Amino acid sequence: MARAITKLFGHMHTNCRKSFPHLYIRDDDQKRCAVPDDLVSWDAEWKEYDPDDYTMPHVLSGPEWADPPSIEGLKFNTIDGNIDRRSHMGEYSLDSGENDEFCKGRPLNPVGRTGLKGRGTLGKWGPNHAADPIVTRWKRDDAGNKITNPVSQKLVLQFVAIVRRDHGVWAVPGGMVDAGENINVTLKREFSEEAMNTLELPPDQVEKVTTQVNDLFQHGTEVYRGYVDDPRNTDNSWIETVAHNFHDDSGNSVGAFTLNAGDDAIGVKWVDISQDLQLFASHLDFIKKVADIHGCHW
Length: 298
Ligand code: RP5
Known about the structure:
The protein is α+β, with helices and mostly antiparallel strands. The chain has a domain of 156 residues: Nucleoside Triphosphate Pyrophosphohydrolase, CATH 3.90.79.10. The protein has 6 helices and 11 strands. Strands 5, 6, 7, 8, 9, 10 and 11 form a 7-stranded mixed sheet that branches. It has a two-stranded parallel sheet with strand order 1-4. The structure holds 5-O-phosphono-beta-D-ribofuranose. It comes from Bugula neritina. GO terms for molecular function: ADP-ribose diphosphatase activity.
């Protein structure tokens, strides 16, 4: 099972392992243990593997988006009450308890070992579902003509990118799907809050923005569904997403939006799509798929 899923994802996760020997995100003390490439897969025998078991205090304090500290009573690989604990990657395995009886029954990261047990800073045991809206337009000059890259001779596509408050890096303005929430609602909310700052706009402007976003988000194309190589992933908790592309071909709808960073974003702008971008988690993989769909410069 684990081996098949690793193949489907396309590559081993690297971002969560990269933090070794640095400190775990937003925490001063917690470290991961190093996991070499050939021991990422759960199929690779590693009897001595015994990373720290760590869940951050704010997750353990019981916010409504987080699971309880113990997995007791939770139903994995199914819809559990109003929480979808299914993975886009297929059925995930549960820890047999062979290495550590205390961890028996915990969901196992479908891509493999990360060097940290527990949930780290994530709320859910198993998959934590997110949604990523990729809003695009053609790059144009002042006269409105589409711009071509001089080297590839292909048109340049732009997407709305934000700077994440937590990592200070450029990213797609995605966010977590609330329990029982339709993904279309998540896509619109995250874009509106992070790229249009609707949380701080006066009500009449919120209404205007909401109408514009609703119009544009009526027609999207799914570009990715699955595991995200997110630095927060642990052995027992990981992020999965569904990424949709919303393209404004004429440049008259979203192309004319006034972007304004809000909520978890501290910056927002239209960014030219190219393979040289450095983006959060595996967001560049999603952007590549969008570039392939539109046949633009890469
Ligand atoms: C990434 O983290 C997802 O692709 C999504 O963009 C984001 C969701 O986490 P938060 O932005 O809510 O922290 O893995």
